């Protein structure tokens, strides 16, 4: 379940957006101003941020700058909400590093579609050629989630179910540092409370095996010292 932080000071809009996104299956947290948005982000990095530009105190632009300046959140997807009068500034919003923007007034449904599209793009998701399930792709590495098949340069990579879930977690949040704790909860479906030290060593062991199986693409699973791992495929132009 993807987590979305909605930053909006107008309670009515925040409630509408939260309602729609929750209905679409997202776990939603809301923040009423820039400072509490940063607090929420420091507690727990979501999968995407819906960010109003006009906020009391710290503005949406300031929050976006802070996100892009933070190594752990550099690539965190952000959808900006802009008022009509700010429309001419929308280019600067995208230049500042927003992934998309929606102009007010908007329908919650429209916003939800944008959120979905931005998340798919951020995950490197493409349409499966067979028309079946979702496919994640990074360079020559493809992960067909429906068929549970992983290929590298067209060749089959045989993964255990745990390795598959581990790689999926990493690829779905490509470019972001994920803690061992996060990976245990996601790939091992472990309850957050029972994660202990021996368990985190389990992650390291599985990552080592996964890297070996991925051959040259194994390097894309980077170690984030004292924290966890990050999937970082080489940039392509
Ligand atoms: Ca506002």
How would you characterize the overall build of this protein?
- With 237 residues, this protein is α/β, with parallel strands linked by helices.
- The chain has helices spanning 11-23, 34-43, 60-69, 90-95, 108-122, 161-172, 180-187, 197-214, and strands at 3-7, 27-31, 48-52, 78-82, 100-103, 125-126, 135-138, 141-144, 149-152, 155-157, 177-179, 221-224, 228-231.
- The chain starts with a strand and ends in a 6-residue tail after the last strand.
- The protein binds calcium ion.
- The site of calcium ion has 5 residues, from loops.
- Residues 9-10, 52, 54-55 line the site of calcium ion.
Task: From the structure above, extract its key features.
5-stranded antiparallel beta sheet, binds calcium ion, globular, 5-stranded parallel beta sheet, 237 residues, 8 helices, single chain, alpha/beta
């Amino acid at each position: 379940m993807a987590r979305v932080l909605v930053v909006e000071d107008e309670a009515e809009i925040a409630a509408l957006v939260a309602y729609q996104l929750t209905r679409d299956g997202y776990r939603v947290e809301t923040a009423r101003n820039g400072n509490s948005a940063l607090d929420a982000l420091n507690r727990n990095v979501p999968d995407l941020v819906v960010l109003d530009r006009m906020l009391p105190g710290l503005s949406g632009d300031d929050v976006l700058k802070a996100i892009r300046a933070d190594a752990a959140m550099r690539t965190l997807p952000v959808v900006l909400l802009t008022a009509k009068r700010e429309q001419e500034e929308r280019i600067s919003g995208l230049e500042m590093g927003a992934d998309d923007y929606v102009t007010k007034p908007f329908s919650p449904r429209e916003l939800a579609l944008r959120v979905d599209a931005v998340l798919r793009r951020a995950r490197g998701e493409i349409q499966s050629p067979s028309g079946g399930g979702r496919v994640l792709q990074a360079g020559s590495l493809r992960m067909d989630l429906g068929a549970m098949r992983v290929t590298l340069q067209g060749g089959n990579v045989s993964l255990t179910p745990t390795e598959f879930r581990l790689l999926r977690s990493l690829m779905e949040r490509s470019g972001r540092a994920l803690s061992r704790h996060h990976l245990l909860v996601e790939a091992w479906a472990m309850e957050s409370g029972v994660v202990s030290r021996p368990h985190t060593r389990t992650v390291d062991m599985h990552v080592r095996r996964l890297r070996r199986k991925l051959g040259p693409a194994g390097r894309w699973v980077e170690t984030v010292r004292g924290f966890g791992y990050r999937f970082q495929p080489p940039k392509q132009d």
